[in-house]
Amino acid sequence: MNQYIDENVKIYLRLMMREDTDLIVAWRNSDAVRRNFIYQEAFTREGHEDWIRNMVDTGRVVQMMICDMDTDEPLGSVYIRDIDRRHNKAEYGIFIGEADARGRGVGTAAARLMLRYCFEEQRLHRVYLRVLSENFPAIRSYEKAGFVREGILKGDVCIDGQYRDVVWMAALAAGPA
Predict the structure, then answer these.
(1) Residue 164 in contact with residue 152, Cβ under 8 Å?
(2) pTM to 2 decimal places
(3) In the prediction, which pLDDT does 100 show?
(4) How far apart are CA 52 and CA 11, in angstroms?
(5) Cα dist from 88 to 21, 118, 123, 126, 145, whole Å
């Protein structure tokens, strides 16, 4: 794998390891992260280990850790899932687990790096995402990273008894379609 580094924001991406499980579970169960996910159920170590075994190990998911260049400490995670080789597309996801890493461009830089990985190494044509419509900071970050809004899915998900809208966004690889 090539190196994916952002010198300005001082982050890099590395493949997730099994040893990251406890940190990922803790982050995903924090209110700050969980409330922005469509899937809001509690995460468990066993569930994440199943994710690794059934999704990562089978190549249906590539998950990376976002790390601080100065300390090598993980700040969050990015991933692509449902990798579709017939149509060369995948769904993108991200979460910034460390509170002090939020609001300083880490998410945008990580998204740009992951898109580069998707287009250069995975040879994907399309990377798409779904985001809750009220998550304005994430939508702005995705747009800065190169994603374009394609539509709104009205009342698409029911969270805590309320139907909520989901924004559908995507980025396409440069070059011939």
Answers:
(1) no
(2) 0.93
(3) 94
(4) 24
(5) 28, 10, 7, 7, 20
The total number of residues written for the chain in this structure: 177
* pLDDT tens column, 56-72: 999 999 999 999 999 99
Cα–Cα distance measured from residue 91 to residue 109, given in angstroms and rounded to the nearest whole number: 18
Residue 140 lies in a domain: no
Question: CA–CA distance from 168 to each of 15, 54, 76 (Å)?
Answer: 26, 26, 22
Q: What is the CATH number of the domain that holds 31?
A: 3.40.630.30
CB-based burial label for 24 (10 Å; 0-12, 13-18, 19+)? buried
The domain of 71 spans: 4-127
Tell me the longest C-alpha to C-alpha distance in the chain. 44
The verdict on residue 87 lying in a domain is yes
H-helix or E-strand containing 53? Answer: none
104-121 residue pLDDT tens:
999 999 999 999 999 999
Q: Is residue 22 part of a domain?
A: yes
